[in-house]
Design goal:
The chain is of the alpha/beta class. The chain is built from nine helices and 15 strands. A hairpin with an 8-residue loop joins strand 1 and strand 2. The structure holds NADP nicotinamide-adenine-dinucleotide phosphate.
Length: about 325
């Protein structure tokens, strides 16, 4: 099969499309032909060995000290089941499925092997692009808003989303709006109309306004880009408010407690099912920045590295 291979950490140009051996499913696995996969900020972080402050030694131990241990990156996929392991009973050849591969990565390829328990059916009417696109940002936004901020228990909340036009942010704006919150999105002026169309009542242009100087106070402040720290974000909180830091240094992550929440969002099939159902029902829109063939994987990484991507960058292997 063809795959985007990363044999050394570095800029987007280190990624090369190569012919590699097809992955072979074990007894509990399924083999999926990848129709769409996202190049996420997580993939770009791994490729460039760029991690939030303090995490680099641990990340390199986990991912490869001098070069990526897993040379094919990619976490999210949507595609068609091509083979199933001998112990798999609830997934069949021909099923349209989506999911994540977690630490195994490997989705930037024509074929991927994944545990059968880790895939969810793609509902009728949902495209592979949308299914692959919603997972990374959607699971993160859902986890933070529901389990870290308990937004469902705070009816009529005010929510500030910093990075409202990114993969996490576009989902956060919509999920908060769906939960009945009044949403303020922070992005550049060029993305203001998009963010309003996703459900934000107010938009702040970070190129002209320093978010830490805003006079308003919010029940939830969700920073998805890493511009706020506990010290700069807390003053934006209303009484009883909570500060969500999707990007935090190791120190801030270890110290996060009380009104500050940080840490990794889990990849759970229940959350993926829920997000795909929301997409199927039209209550969650998947924002796509661009959809590229595998051969343009370097351009995909460049776009992610720009820090300007709007929603999701996808590959169609
Ligand atoms: N904790 C976790 O489990 C977890 C999970 C997923 C992701 N993350 C992290 O979350 C971060 C965001 O991921 P992502 O994929 O959503 O990012 P992304 O899509 O790459 O974010 C790009 C967006 O950020 C906006 N942006 C850039 N600088 C900004 C600023 N100063 N203020 C407001 N908006 C700004 C840009 O909008 P404009 O062009 O309009 O400025 C752009 O649309 C990444 O660092 C990722 O590693 C953490």
């Amino acid at each position: 099969m063809r795959a985007a291979v990363v044999r050394e950490y570095g800029p987007p140009g280190v990624v090369r499309v190569e012919e590699v051996a097809d992955p072979v499913p074990g007894p509990k696995d399924v083999l999926v032909r990848v129709r769409a996969t996202a190049v996420t900020s997580g993939d770009a972080r791994i490729r460039g060995a760029r991690f939030p402050r303090g995490f680099a030694p641990f990340a390199r131990l986990a991912l490869g000290v001098r070069r990526p241990r897993r040379s094919v990156l990619g976490l999210t996929f949507s595609g068609t089941v091509e083979a199933v392991g001998s112990e798999v009973t609830d997934v069949s050849v021909g099923d349209e499925v989506a999911g994540t591969t977690g630490a195994r990565m490997g989705t930037h390829a024509e074929l991927v092997v994944v545990r059968a328990t880790k895939v969810v059916p793609v509902p009728a009417g949902v495209s592979h692009d949308d299914a692959a696109g919603v997972i990374f940002g959607g699971t993160t936004a859902l986890f933070y808003l529901r389990e870290k901020a308990h937004l469902q228990d705070r009816p009529g909340s005010s929510v500030l989303v910093v990075g409202a036009s990114g993969a996490v942010g576009t989902n956060a704006v919509q999920l908060a709006h769906n939960a009945g919150a009044t949403v303020t999105g922070v992005c550049s002026g060029a993305n203001a109309d998009l963010v309003r169309s996703l459900g934000a009542t107010h938009v702040v242009d970070h190129t002209t306004t320093d978010v830490t100087t805003l006079p308003e106070r919010y029940d939830v402040v969700f920073d998805t880009v890493g511009t706020l720290s506990p010290a700069s974000g807390r003053p934006l909180l209303a009484d009883g408010g909570v500060l969500l830091l999707a990007v935090a240094s190791l120190g801030d992550t270890l110290r996060a407690r009380g009104d500050v929440k940080a840490g990794p969002a889990p990849e759970r099939v229940g959350d993926m099912r829920e997000l795909l159902d929301l997409v199927a029902s039209g209550r969650l829109r998947v924002v796509l920045d661009r959809v590229l063939p595998l051969d343009e994987v370097v351009a995909a990484h460049e776009r992610v590295d720009s820090g300007r991507k709007v929603g999701n960058v996808l590959l169609r292997p």
